[in-house]
Amino acid sequence: MRRWRGQGDTPADLGRTVVTVGMYDGVHRGHQQLIGTAVARARALGRPCVLVTFDPHPTEVVRPGSHPAILTSLDRKAELVAGLGVDGMCVLPFTPEFSRLTPEEFAHGVLVEHLHASMVVVGENFTYGHKAAGTVTSLTQEGRRFGFAVEGVPLAGDASADGEVTISSTYIRACVAAGDMESAARALGRPHRVDGVVVRGDRRGRELGYPTANVETPPFTAIPADGVYAGHLVTRDPSGATLGSAPAAISVGTNPTFQGSRRTVEAHVLDFAGDLYGEHVGVEFVSRLRPMTAFTGVDELVTAMADDVTRTRTVLGLPPAG
């Protein structure tokens, strides 16, 4: 998949395209349905499918200080949409100047002049342009004027105990914040994952017999509620592509037993004895085992950690330790 940032770097040989536009944070099941529609239309027309997304999140520019938690980094987003068949990903810097483009200026400048859109596929609730004034209806009118077709795709839903819920990034962020990784995974179509780099921590886990990879995540990452989780540690190459994964017991929190103050994500990789410092990794959360607890002493903590590892094996369907 080709990937570029800004309109000025649009490949000169792109030709006519089928375009889909959105933040696509999480690339969840609803996004997958929408992107799948765009890819199918592109294949039928014999044209490349280009996904347009934005960085930073528009809300941070429109309402500074309101940046939402991010479900997928740009690298992870690129990996996921490439897997869905997208041919190109254009990341548009969302600046104050860009936010002031009228719907017509966005349609003509971005979709027509730079991406040569023959068709645009978006969600039925899609908005664009200054103050989100543009809608699918106005985009359809502009398409008739500028020579591209428009298709609005209905939103995907998910059955839950409370009835049908619309799958959205906002809903998934709420699930992650509550530590409900099963609901998050159902909406995403895979476990929630945070990416980062393994850095040196207090090395306390190693001293206790449970060494951990201390994962430093980018700002605004959607980190689950404090607690201990069963999941996986994913290894990545510098471009963000997934290389492999291993089962892990994951701790999120401030290490209250040792009066910690800094919130960390630490993964104890089962049956692993290597060195991960400096590695680009992802941490996938499958299920929350327990809340974060302040234990009365080291012995009680070590007993709980042993139980965490045992329960992680059970949740992930692994045989007991040999």
From TrEMBL:
Reported EC number(s) for this entry are: 2.7.1.26, 2.7.7.2
Assigned protein family: Belongs to the ribF family.
Pathway(s) per entry: Cofactor biosynthesis; FMN biosynthesis; FMN from riboflavin (ATP route): step 1/1; Cofactor biosynthesis; FAD biosynthesis; FAD from FMN: step 1/1
What name does this protein carry? Answer: Riboflavin biosynthesis protein
The record's listing under CDD domains reads: FAD_synthetase_N
InterPro entries tied to this protein:
FAD_synthase, Riboflavin_kinase, Riboflavin_kinase_bac, Riboflavin_kinase_bac/euk, Riboflavin_kinase_dom_sf, Rossmann-like_a/b/a_fold
Annotated keywords = ATP-binding, FAD, Flavoprotein, FMN, Kinase, Multifunctional enzyme, Nucleotide-binding, Nucleotidyltransferase, Transferase
Give the record's GO biological process terms. Answer: FAD biosynthetic process; FMN biosynthetic process; riboflavin biosynthetic process
